Every structure is written in C-alpha cells, then in structure tokens.
Amino acid sequence: DLPPSGPCVLHFLGFVASVQSITRGELFPFGPSARDQLLEAGNDLTRRLQLDKPVLFYDGTFDSIFINTNGFVATAEPTGESTYLGNMPPKFGMIAALQGDLDTSDGVGKVFFRQDSSPDVLFRAAQYINGAFPEDDEVNPTNAVVITWVDVATHEPPSRGDGIDKKRNTFQLVIASLETASYAIVLYARDGMQFSSTPIQGRSAVMHTGFSKGLVQGFLFSSPGPYYRTSTDDEASIRALAEETNSGHRGIWVYEIGTSPYFTNVAPGEVTDLPSEATPQAPTERDDEETDARRTVYTNGQKAQDPPYETEGAQIEVHQIQYQPLHPDNPEVLVVLNQLAIPTTFSPCFSMFSVFSYKLGTCANNRNKCSQFADCKDHSSGYCCNCRPGFYGNGIQCVAEGKPQRMNGKVYGKVYVGDSASPVEFTSNDLHSYVVVNDGRSYVAISDIPNTIGPSLLPLSALGGVIGWAFALEQPGFRNGFSIIGGEFTRQAEVTFLPGNEKLTIRQEFKGIDEHDHLVVSTTLEGQVPEVPLGSTVKIGPYSEVYQYSNNLITSSSTRVYEVSLPDGSTATRTYQWRQTITFQSCQHGESLRDMKPTQMLSVDQVFVLYNPNNALIRFAMSNKIGDINGRKVLSQTQTRLSLLAYDNWLFSLSDIDECRENPQICGSHAICNNQPGTFRCECEDGYQFGNDGQTCVEVYRPVDACEEGTHNCDIPERAQCSYTGGSAYICSCLPGFIGDGRVCQDIDECQPGRCHQDAVCYNTQGSFTCQCRPGYNGDGFSCFPERTKTRCQNHRDSIQGATVSGPRGPRPPLGQFVPTCDENGGYKPTQCHGSTGYCWCVDRNGQEIHGTRIGPGIEHGGVSPPVGPTTRPDVNPLPQGTHLLFAQSGRIDHIPLEGYDMKKDGAKAVLHLPEKVIIGVAYDCVEKMVYWTEITSPSISKASIQGGEPTAVIRSDLDSPEGIAIDHLGRTMFWTDSVRDHIEVASLDGSQRRVIIDSDLVNPRAIITDPPNGNLYWADWNRDAPKIETSYMDGSNRRVLVKDDLGLPNGLTYDSQSSLLCWADAGTHKMECTHPGQGDRRMVMEGLQYPFGITSFGKNIYYTDWRRDAVVAVDRHSGKESDEFQPQKRTKIYGIATAYAQCPSGQNYCAVNNGGCIHLCLATPNGRSCKCPSNAVAVGCVERDSGY
C-alpha cells in the first residue's frame, strides 16, 4: 500500500526509458488512428485551430492557435516565412518546437494535430509536468493539443530526385492546459532527428526552438516582446535535444509557458539529471537456459525479471509487490519480491503506474457525478460513489445484476498480414458485443472485415476478451472487471506471434455507458499478424489468465495455443504470447475496491471463432469465469454444501451432485437455486435482491414513476411536461410557449415587435403564434409583399383587350388594333408585332418604337428569334426556372435550386467554369438574368447570362482588389468595393459611366448590398482595429455608421426588402445578427458560426458560406437554428453567395423609368434621385444635378 504521507508516483519502466532516448513509437499517439487532423501538404502553410479551452501564453489568453508547416505554433496568423526565417524573434507569438524552412509537399512528410481531453493523454501529460517540477504542487491538465511533425524535410528547390534519400525530422509538441496555467511538452525522438539546419536564402541557418511573445504595443510604438530561446546558433544544441532533458526523461522537455492571473517568465523543467545506466552482469549458464523464458532489465542498479509465460494447468505461486520507502540518498525504486512481477516491457504510454487521485469535494456538490443507482459517501479526503444493492460497478457507473450487457464501438488502425507490403486499414469498422451475464457468455462481432485479413484475425479471440473479463461469471468471493473498475478504462495489449515474432498492439478505450445503456469502446489495431489462408478454420482450446490488481492498474500475461485447419486438410498448431495492462481511475475508499483480491484467474472455455467472407463479418464467442488462481471454488458456507465427492467429480468430469435437488431450502426464502457443475448459485426471485449480507433476499424497493402512472402534480400535458428522474422523483417543466414552474404554466404572448413582417398582423395562440399578411399584401406573414400592381405594358395591353365591340358571337376586341406583348416581369418584350398586318419592330423599355427597326411580314428580324448573346458553351449550364442560390468557388460559380426555402441539393451543379480565377463577390441581375462577379487574379468584373452565353469582361482597368459587388436592377447600375484602393465605386451595367462615391475612412471594405426601392446602400468594413457597418444613399450622400460595437470580422451582409432587415455574419465574433436600419434595434440570430464569408437571404431563411466547413448553410432566422447544409463535391473555400430570383422583387425608384431623366448616371435616393457625372465628366461634357423631384 502507499504510505500515509500521500500518493507517490512510481516510474517502473520510466527509469529504463529515461536512460535511453525516446523513439517515434513512444510519442503521444498520432495519425489517423488517433483521430488527428492533417495539415495541407506544402511549404509555409497554416491552419487555424479553434480551441475548446483556451491556451495561456505569457500573460495572454488565446481561444485559437495557428499550426504551421515550419515546425511552430503561433498565437496569431503568422506573416510570410521571409519575415522570420533567419530573422528571429518574429513579430507574432510563436511556440517553436523545431522551427526552420520545412516542406511536406513530397507526400512523405505530414503534420498531424488534434485537441485531446482523453484520460490517458491528460494523465501522461500530468506525469511529465509533475515529474519536471517535483517541488511544485501537483497539476492535472484538463485539455491538451497534440501537434506532430512527421518525416518533414527541408524546403529545397525542385530537383529530379524522388526525395527518398532526404533527411527527415520527427518531433512532437503537446500543449497541456488547466484553468490557471499552460505547459509545453516537446518530444524529440532519437530515431527522428536527422538534420539541425535548413537552407535560407542561399545559406545554412540553424533551426530555432523557444518561445516568443511577439511585438508588444507601447505608448507610441511597438517593440519586440520577450523571447525565451531554448537552443543556440550551434548545431550541437539541436542535436542535444534528443539526448538531454529538463524533465528527467531523455528527449522530453517541459516548460511552463503561461499562467493566470500573474506571469513572470517561461519556466523550464527542473530535472536535468538522468539516472545512471547500469551495466548488465555477464550471463551465467543458468541465465542462458532461461533466456527464452524471461528477460532482465536494470532499473538504477535494481534487477527485475519478467515472469515466464504461464503454462496451462500448473500451480501458480504468487508473491505480492511491495514498495520500498523513500530514502534521502536513494531514488525511489520498485523492489520486486516475486517471480511474477508486473511486466516491464509495455509501451511507455503505460510504463508509469497510475496513482489514486482523490475525488475532491463533497457529495453535496458532486452527487450528480454518481450513478443514479449509487449512493454518495463523504470521506475526510473527498467523496466516493457506491452502487446500491442489486447493482454492481464502481459507483460512477452501475448496472443491474443479471441484466444482459451490450457493447458498441469502432475499430481503427493499420495491420499488415504476413509479408504484405501494404497494410489493411480499419476506418471506423463497427464492433458489437452482447454478454449473457448470468452465465458469463460473451459474443463479439466486427463488420466490414475484408477477406485479405479476416481469417488471420481468427486467433485473436482476445479482441473481445476484455468484455468477457468485465462481465465474467463470478465465483463466490471473486469479482469481475466491471464490479471493480466500472466502464471507463484503457486497455493496451501486446501480442507476439511465434515463431515468426510478428507483433500486434491492441489499444481499447472504454468510454463508459451511453444514453442507450450500451458500453462504448474505441479499438485501435497496429502491427502485423501471420497469414491464415482464406478457407481455413481456427480452433482455440480453453485457457486461463491471471490478473494482478493494484491501485488503478491491472496486468496479465499468458501464452495462447490455437490450431489452424488449412484448406488442403492439413493442420498446424501455433502460439502467441499475450501481455496486457488496464489503467483506470478509482476511489480509495470505494466499496468496489474494498475486497479486491490482488490476484484472480479468468478461465475461458467454449471458445468459437468464425469468419464469413460473404458478409465480411468476424465473430467470437466464449464463456468466462473469474475465480481463484489455482482453480479452487471459494463458496460461502451458507450458500454451499459441497461434498468432497462432488468436488472430485467436478475436477475429474464425473457426475455432478445436484445440491438444489438434495436441499431445496439451501438458498433460503424468495431465492432460486441454480445447479452448476461442482457447485450451485443462488438467485433472488423477481422483486427481490440480495441484502447487505449478500445472502438473504430482501424485497426490492420499487420506485414509482409518477409521470408514467399519472400521479404527478404537473400542469396538463398541453402546457407542461413531466420528466422522471429516478427513485420517486420527477421534474415539471413548461412546454415551449408557456412560462411557470411546471405545476402552473401560463401562455407567453409571443407577439413581440419583429416577430412578423411589418406588413403583417401577429395573432397569439396557446403556446405559439401565427402571422398573417394585411389586406393588400401576399405572403406567409413572415415575408409580405404588396399585391403586384400592373406595369405600363400590362395596363396598355389590358386597356386594349378590355375595349370591346358587339358582333354576331358577342363582345370581342376591335379588329386591327395593335395589342402589345409583355414579358414575365410585365415589361415590354423587345420585339413587338402587329397581329393583323404582320409588321414587327423593336421597342425600348417604355414600349416606344426604335426608329429604323420596322420590317414587313415574313421577313426575319435580325437577332430576334435566337436569344441575345452567343450560343451555349459546353462549360456553361443554363439554369432551370425558379429561384436559386449562386455561390463562388475558386475557378467556378455553382448554383443550388430552391424548393420553397429548402435547398434541392441533388440538383446543385456548376453554372460557370472559370479556370485559374479566384472569384470573390457574386451578384445577380433579375431583369436580364445575368450573373456578375469580381475576381482578383487578374482584377476584373465580368458577367454571363445564366440562360447560356459567353462570360464577358465588363471592367478590366483601374482595379486592384474588387471584392463585394451589388446590382441596382431598377436603376441599371452596379456598385463594388476595392479593398486595396479603399473605395466604393459605381458604374452602368455595361461598365461605362464609372464614378467613385466613397473614398475616405475605409480600410478593408468588402461586403456591399443595395436597397433599390428605398435608394439606400450598405457596406461592411472588416478593419481589425475598428470594424463597422455603414450606409448611405446610392449617390454616396448622407453617409453614417449603423453598427460599430461588438464586431470582429463582419464579412457578409444581406438585406431582405420584405422584412426590412439588414443582417450580417461575423467571422470574428462567430455570430449572425440583424437590425432594422431605421430603428436602431439589434438582435442575435445565431452564435457558434465557424468562419462565415458570404451571406444572402430569401424569405425566412438566411444562407451563408463557411470557410471552415466548406459548405453553404441555411439558417431559419425566426428560430435561430440551422435547417440544412450543402457541401459541394469540390471541397474548397466558398466565397460570395447571391439569390437568383425567379422574378424581380417588387418596388420602383426614380431611376427605373427613362433613367430618371438623367443623361449619365442616375443614382436613387429615398425621396428622389441624383444625376451624377462619371469620373471623366469633362471628356463627356457632363453637368451634375442633385436630387430632384
């Protein structure tokens, strides 16, 4: 036992591992099997990682970090590598694990990263930190970030070589944090450090390690902040990283890099000394004989021997492991007093003993952490949870006695079969298990197993063996795994196949019981197995395995024998050696550990293994019992009257005495006797359970579910909900739309301002509300628009058709009268024809004939029959009828049809292919069915018909970085922002009449939108120092700031003319918000957005593009929830997005007719229009007139 003075951390294999440098295999788990993300291949690439819990660095707190190819992590988006390579320290905060000019573009090198809060990773990080700072208080991190640079090479000019002979480095950075501090753990593998300098600008520069705060803002100017460098300009200092330490483990370095609320400087680990390396003595003849049976390791002069693998049927003598007290002149060592010591050859992940950590606090504050079937008990050092009678487990998780158990999980990893050069990969294969607890029978099935590996996995019945151990049939006086440690633990097993010496590692993380009462497990397989040919069968005989128990650690080892029947009829007997560790967290005073025996034996028989190649399914089945290590049954006197003859009969497989028949009352009242070979088992009747003495059956307290029986005092079901919470307790809660304590609920009047459209009436109902458009308006109440008034063309047409003359067949239109034809929007069709004479002519938008265009009957009017513009190209796909979303990706514009407000994702496709173009903004002209876009590779503004036609450049000159673009479909103008020129410009839709309307107090203008009927313009400036959203009239006058507080990166804007709402998406605050520009209100629609860029609206929905998700996301702005997501097949960043309306929105402005009477630019205002001159006013002889009418 541990001494009373407190917990003590023992490093059994740790002493050996400290003497030798770590290897790649001893790093924290990384790669696909660890669920890592992968940084894009290349040079000087960066990925932002949003953190679940912040990192403390120097005196700052950071919610995100930036991971870079060049061997470092930054606290702000790093500048280009030319600014810091060879020019340290950088201007930004940097944690340099091993910084240089690195490259992963050859496909060999990779950079993996993830956030990890799993117990094994946090436990291992805590061990390194506490070991590096032995005089400080013990810390327990709550979150970690693991970044691994694997086989990265130096960045060099392209050559004809294939890169096989390149030198490569592998190293790892773990940032472990708790609420008040963050630590950096840097691991340098002995077999992963091949170069210490990289070429920079024609010279060789030594790589950097250390911590830089970056620039610090002073009163007048910025200056470089602290830079704690951990290496020098000597290459020897880089080579020493894998050979020296400050943590007591060679190649592992620990630093305290940030504390709160006060911080002084980076603090390195304090243990720079390494244990002396013992010299092995010359082997004796006796040692030579036992070489194959055991291996010897040296731990600071203390010799420990691994046990030989047990043989079946032998009597096993077990001695206890004891701990030698700490002596001032002697490091704490583990003294092994037996021949069956805890194995010392496991992976370093499990080489350190896990020591009990008290559950601090009291039951009053932590009762909810216990199982609902457990009681909480306070102790002087903390609290413990204990399962109630009738249940078993560790108190945190308890299950009912006798209830069958299920386990679900996934299998990951890579396994080589035989001499195959490529592994079989497991990518989230399903694993299911079922256990009949009353007889210890377990069944395991794994799906999607290809026949290239299926037969070769048959010998590994132990894949499911741990579930058999967890719920093994208990012999009296002994306890199965779940009874002792519950359902949260980590198991790692190492399998060595003989005689080929193939090795396989099995790692399983048991994550407790989910909401379906199923045990959850994640399994990872890594290594090699000998090949078993397809069509073979495998037979596994009974075996036993001794489990050794100590605080938070369980170990076992054995030799397994199996027989393979090959397809040719021959058989082969094979073996493998098996070692495993199980680590877990426990409560020192918990009842589950009170009677725990130091050793128990798991006996497994009736083992069946089967692989079905037709459905790619592998199955394992076995019976499991836990009991005495020498096979003796320990039975209580009151439960068992087993005669010596019965015991001998059982041992020699002779007839069994049925104790239940001989003595029907042997189990007592309300109990059932169940005879078994050589013994019997007592089980309580339904409604009864064993009392505290474990023998007498007492009546089960059956709590009443008042919710189910209707005896609760909650309000009626139409207003409230009753929720059963266990025991006889329940909770009453009001349904949505009602308020109260659940016992009395009153209706909420949801008809608050802004719920419905401004032209709608809100009607409150019980628990909800309805919106109805006012008379004269159409819509669903959330969006209302005036009943459409007739256009000039429609009035003209209807006035003629309404005039009638009398005839023999009744009233009819007058003969010979010209009747105009109108398009779908009510405008005059460009070509008009007289129905009687056959003459045709062209008209302007006002229906006036264009001089010189009239032609006689039967003559084709040039350009009238085919649509205006070139024929459709193969890479231009016309859009079908209806409303669509248009969005931009690099090199293309795609569309998604809308059905109502829902995205028809199966109808999405590319509209325009524009190779090598980076398209930023997208806008749509609903009159001419044109899409307009901005692109920044060769800065320009272009357009194309969505009904088919060649892309046409509209503006190519005097542009630097055009980004946002908006269309006034009434005034026939377009507006755009230029983030380099820092201005807003307007022009006619053909690119003529250009004029800058806003050219001051702009830093990073991007999003811009128009409100044509009201003559307003809106734009966003994502200036990081002072972001803002502004508005003006369309002529640039009456400029004012709408929103400036609580903004980060307002990338996208949209205006819904039906609701008069201006909405924006912010990539800095990760929120979507809306306001009525004229009212000054502001409300949040949704938070938790990742990285929104473009945004548009249609009806009740807002649609935005997200750079992190590479998706178009639909949000219901009334409920504030996502309703759908579309990820295009091409997974790249999505930029601008616009709504392509089936019909133009209703409304007019003063520029809609005859260009407002202006000769050049007509720019609408709320109460009129301004006639403005283009920038080349002198050349065109223009005179301006301000707002008129």
From TrEMBL:
GO terms for cellular component: basement membrane; plasma membrane. This is Nidogen 1. Residues 790-868 form the Thyroglobulin type-1 domain. Its main location: secreted. Gene3D superfamilies: Green fluorescent protein, Laminin, Thyroglobulin type-1, TolB, C-terminal domain. It comes from Cyclopterus lumpus. GO terms for biological process: canonical Wnt signaling pathway; cell-matrix adhesion. LDL-receptor class B repeats lie at residues 929-971, 972-1014, 1015-1059. Residues 97-260 form the NIDO domain. Disulfide bonds join C833-C840. Keywords: Basement membrane, Calcium, Cell adhesion, Disulfide bond, EGF-like domain, Extracellular matrix, Glycoprotein, Repeat, Secreted, Signal. One of its GO terms (molecular function) is Wnt-protein binding. The gene is nid1a. Coiled coil: none annotated.
